[in-house]
Design goal:
Order of helices and strands: HHHHEHEHEHEEEEHEEHEEEEEEEEEEEE
Radius of gyration: 22 Å
Keywords: Disulfide bond, Glycoprotein, Hydrolase, Metal-binding, Metalloprotease, Protease, Secreted, Signal, Zinc
Bound molecules: 2-acetamido-2-deoxy-beta-D-glucopyranose, zinc ion
Pfam families: Astacin
CATH architecture of the largest domain: 3-Layer(aba) Sandwich
CATH superfamily of the largest domain: Collagenase (Catalytic Domain)
Protein name: Zinc metalloproteinase
Cofactor: Zn(2+)
CATH topology of the largest domain: Collagenase (Catalytic Domain)
Organism: Pristionchus mayeri
Number of helices: 9
Length: about 475
């Protein structure tokens, strides 16, 4: 078993002077990991009432699948997400939670926690897993032969995303303990700073991993975070259809025990950059593996945020105690928080802007919503491909006391797990902090969304491909 698996890994590590397998040899006891994962798989199944709820959700879902959909001006090229890239290459078999590498120490910790039914933590904060706090610096380098000239710019854009929004800094170095960006078939990272040997810890970023959102996700693991759908409270938000997951993949949905304080008051977020897409690890990809519970069914299509959300950012700032960089305080509107990089202004939730988060983003188009049904076509023409999103904001405003009811229809798009390249983000809650609902798949009928206040923000985004959608809306009581 061990040697077969090991050979498979060596075989999949194709190009360049790769020492991915070396790293696995040093850090991961594959035999033990396989045994541990198998034991977890055996434990993971649903209770009868969860199965019954899934049957209902499955029936409801199948009604939303459109017959012979024809995308308008769109291509049907499918972009893959992290889990699909890793799955295709067989890499995920030896990874914990799909794209997570574990050290022997972490493995032992998880084994112990499982045996004692205690909690694994969403963010590991023990000494030895941290890059420091308040002003954490993560040293990194590229492995010899890594195609830095082509991939480096996207990687540094992802690092800049975290630097702009948190107190984390990245420093390219040539010696000392560091994260080493390596060529690989897939995308994976250790959780936190390993620190159990000298040298480097791998951050595997293959060609398929080249989007800011994907790299930000892997960097979250490097900071010390696991996935959202492994939170102890996930069973209150989603049902996992274990009948639609291959036995070998079930451990990807292993659950943490309860340890509330370590979630740092960050709520469960479907649109988090650290949540799986609903069809990740599905045996039958025409059906989800993760169903949003009935109360949250508007989120069914919108799992896995394209980039880290406001709450993902707050989580990282709490993890590293970034707030300690500010001595003064500042007041912010609409859920904004003090910007740890400039204490005299606020960091705003998506859809708000200005030093105090009391303005809408520049260029937001306002649309009056009346009792009469209106339809608006939103079109982002093809443009220069970029690592940064072009975003058009539409603010739908109903008269005071009314609500906005809106149904989106995606007309033309590439489609991708995670709505990464393009789509709509719809903010409909009174609380501005949670991420909106992402909408991007033209093959399904999207849910009707009703705002909690008289305003709804619809943001159309793209990395350069053409995107077209139609929104139909009216004011309701
Ligand atoms: C579709 O493509 C045609 C021809 O390029 C163009 O005229 C039209 O505006 C496009 N429609 C949308 C919705 O993008
Ligand atoms: C852990 O939980 C399982 C299932 O609830 C139970 O059967 C087992 O006895 C528990 N183990 C310990 C050590 O408490
Ligand atoms: C901090 O933000 C304020 C308000 O926008 C701005 O005037 C100031 O230049 C910023 N300071 C730095 C160091 O960027
Ligand atoms: Zn991951």
């Amino acid at each position: 078993m061990f040697s077969l698996l090991f050979l498979a890994l060596v075989g999949s590590a194709i190009a360049g002077p790769v020492d991915f397998e070396e790293d696995l040899k040093h850090n991961v006891d594959l035999e033990r990991l396989q045994k541990d994962l198998k034991a977890l798989d055996e434990r993971l199944q649903n209770s009868a009432d969860v199965d019954a709820e899934i049957e209902l959700l499955k029936a409801a879902y199948s009604k939303t699948v459109l017959e012979s959909p024809a995308p308008l001006n769109g291509s049907i090229i499918k972009d893959e997400d992290i889990n699909e890239i890793n799955e295709k290459d067989g890499e995920e078999k030896d990874l914990f939670e799909g794209d997570v590498l574990l050290t022997n120490e972490q493995l032992a910790l998880i084994e112990t926690l499982h045996k004692s039914n205690r909690s694994r933590r969403q963010a590991l904060k023990d000494a030895g897993y941290s890059w420091g706090t308040v002003k954490p610096v993560i040293p990194y380098s590229y492995s010899a032969g890594y195609p830095k000239s082509t991939r480096g710019p996207t990687i540094t854009d992802a690092m800049k995303f975290w630097e702009k929004n948190t107190c984390v800094r990245f420093k390219e170095v040539t010696s000392g303990y560091r994260v080493e960006v390596r060529e690989s078939a897939g995308c994976s990272s250790y959780v936190g700073k390993i620190n159990d040997r000298k040298g480097t810890q791998a951050l595997n970023l293959g060609e398929g991993c080249m989007s800011v959102g994907t790299i930000c996700h892997e960097l979250s693991h490097t900071f010390g975070f696991f996935h959202v759908q492994s939170r102890f409270d996930r069973d209150s938000y989603v049902d996992i259809d274990f009948n639609n997951i291959l036995t070998d993949d079930k451990h990807n949905f292993d659950l943490e025990g309860e340890d509330k304080t370590l979630l740092r008051d960050i709520p469960y977020e479907f649109g988090s950059n650290m949540h799986y897409y609903h069809k990740d690890f599905a045996k039958d990809e025409s059906r989800p593996a993760i169903y949003a519970k009935p109360a949250y069914k508007v989120y069914q299509e919108g799992m896995m945020g394209r980039v880290p959300t406001f709450y993902d950012i707050l989580g990282v700032n709490k993890h590293f105690n970034c707030a300690a960089n500010c001595k003064s305080s500042v007041s912010c509107s609409n859920g904004g928080v003090q910007d740890v990089n400039n204490c005299s202004k606020c960091l705003c939730p998506f859809g708000w802007a200005g030093d105090k988060c009391d303005q809408r983003p520049a260029g937001t188009k306002k649309m009056l919503v009346t009792l009469e049904t209106q339809t608006k076509r939103i079109h982002l023409p093809a443009g220069t491909k970029s690592t940064q999103y072009k975003i058009d904001y539409y603010l739908l405003q109903a008269p005071p006391g009314k609500k906005v009811q809106m149904t989106p229809e995606v007309l033309g798009t590439r489609w991708s797990n995670s709505c990464d390249p393009m789509g709509l983000e719809v903010k409909f809650l009174k609380d501005a902090r949670p991420s909106g609902i992402q909408v991007c798949d033209w093959r399904v009928q999207q849910p009707t969304i009703t705002s909690e206040t008289n305003e709804m923000l619809v943001a159309a985004y793209s990395l350069g491909d053409q995107f077209a959608a139609e929104i139909t809306f009216k004011a309701v009581n």
